[in-house]
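Review form for a predicted model. The reviewer records the input and the model, then writes brief findings.
Reviewer: anonymous (R2)
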Amino acid sequence: MLAPCLTAMLALAAGGAERVDVEDSPLRCWPADQRQSQKDYEIALNRIPTSPSLRANHEMIAEHPHYSGTPNDLRAAERLAAEFTALGFEVEKQELWVYLAEPLDAALEIVSPVHTKLSLKEDVLAEDPYSGHRDLRFGWNAYSGNGDVTAPVVYANYGTKEDFEKLSELGVEVAGKIVIARYGGNYRGYKAKFAEAAGGAGLIIYTDPADSGFAKGLMYPEGGYATPSYIQRGSIKALDYVGDALTPFEPATKGAKRLDPDKVGLPVIPVQPVGWGAAQEILGRMNGDAVPSGWQGGLPFTYRVSSDEDLMVRLMVKQKRGLKKVYNVLGTLRGTTLRDRKVFVGCHYDAWTFGAADPLAGTMVLYECAKSFAALAERGRRPARSIVFANWAAEEFGIIGSVEWVEANGDDLLNNGVAYLNLDMAAMGPNFGSSAAPVLQKLIAEATREVQPSSSSADGGKTVFDMWVERSEDGMLPGHPRFGHLGGGSDHVGFYCHAAVPSASLGAGGAKGVSYHSNYDNLAWYRKVVGQDYEPAKMVTRVLNVVVARLAHAPLLPIDPVRYGPDVRRHLKSLAQRAGKLEFDIDLSKIEGISTRYEQQAVGVYKRVLEKLNGGELSDEKLACLNKVLIGLERHWYHEAGLPGGRSWFRNLYAATDPDSGYAAWMLPALRWAVERKQTAAAITAGNTYHRVFTNLLNAMDQMEACID
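Model under review:
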């Protein structure tokens, strides 16, 4: 039974305050007499992206495997810098010395009852000329511990915190055993963390056909889904901070002061990824109790939670860790009148293999956007604010390059960072979507109204916005698309979760297949599965062009101060439901009340600002005053002491990564931590903190009124 305050909270959150749009015009941030000029600029921008140009961008560094710290990775950085130079941009190559891992050797075999060596590399396919490239390596998980262990096996489903708790409840002994878990459910680093904490001697992670293989569709190369030999590589670094493991809070320069590698909490046990063909040989020989409900995968036999000592598996991993040189590569198109203000567009360039999907399906969009703005700059039409296009290094090893850049440029970001837009794997199908900070959601949604999904007439004149709403309408805001929440997993984390710069990811999915982190993540797979026409990439580029153009050109920053109200109430509703499930009593009514009051005031103030702007009544001085307040709105969520639970690196009270899964987002994370840990005192402290945030936001609305008086 829910506590009375929770019941009331759920009722309040379900209704919420009615959202009032202050003005319908998507160009509300321009005076009426300047809107047509901006419209013409956006149309001109979106005439520039072409499929052949995107195809060339895609091929730029996709011809060779280039994981971080290798000669191919350094050559890729040089090529990207040369492209920015050719566009006439200011180019920065930030040199970093970061702590990386390198695979040396690995082996997996069944020792008994019948000796069987298991494959650790994808099959070479006649239909895929890239799959036999000489630089391709066996599958590996970066930062695995070194070891050679032989032991019985325990199956842990997805290896989540809850899965290991279930094994304990079932009385299954993990200590001294090799754990086998399937990909999905959480970040792979937490599978290793939980297996190690449970006493596991090693960990095997495999891709189950129920999740990404034949149960989803035709396998590659006939279709696009995982083959029996498909292996997902990836980092397993899971620390309380993001970026370089040895230099938290400081950039990883060559002479940086570093932590002791043996004391930072990197994995100790050996960890090895395999395909489901290899996993089948192990799982099919297990003879313990049948798995509980929800744990059965897609292989054609009953899954078991354990085996006796008749089944012995040997796992050997040998890796080398050390400092490697990498480069972030940034190209800046300087603005005219507001050149210190910066709009960031970023995507990492490192990949586990070729990276045609991850990340280069985003890198090609980044460069096409850069080409669009460069072309108009050559014609004398430069943005008011600077645009920084960033290629980040070593993202795959734990979001390293972007975080190190943020840590090196924190003061400038605090004062001048307008927004960060992330493009990781941005063009993976026809279905557009976005995860975004509340202040950017209206801007992004409106930009999708200006773009057609493709050059084909099959869309019936519908816009990207129309099709997005049809697929995913926001239940709390009818007629609006549903945005996702920014959590972990990519380069927005440093900007958003550490520096409190409003951020968003933009992209499109829907391709029928998966090549993620495998040797098949190449141009052959991409063009067969996503397509040869590059229409999704062109669509995403055009949406991005509009978003960047409005952020970089608008006299009044297109930052929506209103959206914090309804979004916070959405998250309070989720928190109340979670607290009820955990039977934890928490009173969220004060935050709900002040968020409603804030929204009402923000609607009124913003409406008056727009009326004066539309009437030409705002001088440059008043606009500068207003923009200073708008750029500072997200900073009110910045909490220098960081989050509870030892997460001092995470400083945005609005959003953080889930500390138990890694990829998912925790919204209002200080409160979420108190709920998950059932800490009443922490919940009261967090509630007071969030109340102060809204008090400061209310003061910001007063400042906006003062700006226009």
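Findings: Confidence is low (pLDDT under 50) at residues 1-22.
Further findings: DSSP finds 21 helices and 17 strands in the chain.
Recommendation: see findings above.
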